[in-house]
């Protein structure tokens, strides 16, 4: 599994989940429940109040976007075979899942699209963000310093991807912010004091950075104090690196990984 922080979400808890099969969408509409594997579920499932749905290429004109939202009624723990008895031969038939019972999904006033090639699984977010978001990156809210730098980069005309998954040498990593340039890509890391302190953590970060650099990524790291106290300097460093790499590639629309 990729390296991930524990999400800290303030506001009415909501979760963006992925729907890849029309059969699963039919269950949402007719039986009003969604399943989440217990072993890979985000934190706080029992406190969930709203569930939104990102639809993949199977959904035609609605693909590659969050289009629907539903209120959560109840969350229970069951085996997959009890949820889907017509699939007894499935490799995870005996695994435990969260059964999230919902009201009928309702369409959002405007879709929330994914603009670039990326892997989307679960996004812990809030009801307010779901109502205000213009695109997928606006939904993330687990790090205040990442949020601050993301907003500053966006205001400067850049197009960073948040929590961008890459699989380079091993299980892969989740990048805080990824920028895509004509002559290379940039990983911008926002190092909060809680998660990036001490020699053991420094060694983990160094090993990770070396793997990314050897795969062609350029890595920039900013501490939380740098982002808070000297945000303009952080922005200038990122913009200079983007210029040195030929400028950003234009966003051409989403072709997501499934």
Structural class: alpha+beta
What is the 3D form?
A: globular
Binned strand content? 25-35%
Tally of domains: 2
What are its keywords?
Trna Endonuclease, Chain: A, domain 1, Archaeosine Trna-guanine Transglycosylase, Chain: A, domain 4, single chain, 26% helix, 11 strands, 258 residues, 2 domains
What does this structure look like?
The protein is of the alpha+beta class and 258 residues long. The chain folds into two domains: 13-139, Archaeosine Trna-guanine Transglycosylase, Chain: A, domain 4 (Roll); 144-244, Trna Endonuclease, Chain: A, domain 1 (3-Layer(aba) Sandwich). It is 26% helix and 32% strand. The chain contains seven helices and eleven strands. The protein has helices at residues 22-30, 80-83, 127-132, 144-155, 199-214, 224-229, 231-244, and strands at residues 13-19, 33-37, 50-55, 65-79, 96-102, 106-113, 123-126, 161-166, 173-181, 184-191, 217-223. Strands 1, 2, 3, 4, 5, 6 and 7 form a seven-stranded mixed β-sheet that branches. The protein has a four-stranded mixed β-sheet with strand order 8-9-10-11, sandwiched between helices. The chain starts with 12 loop residues before the first strand and ends in a 14-residue tail after the last helix.
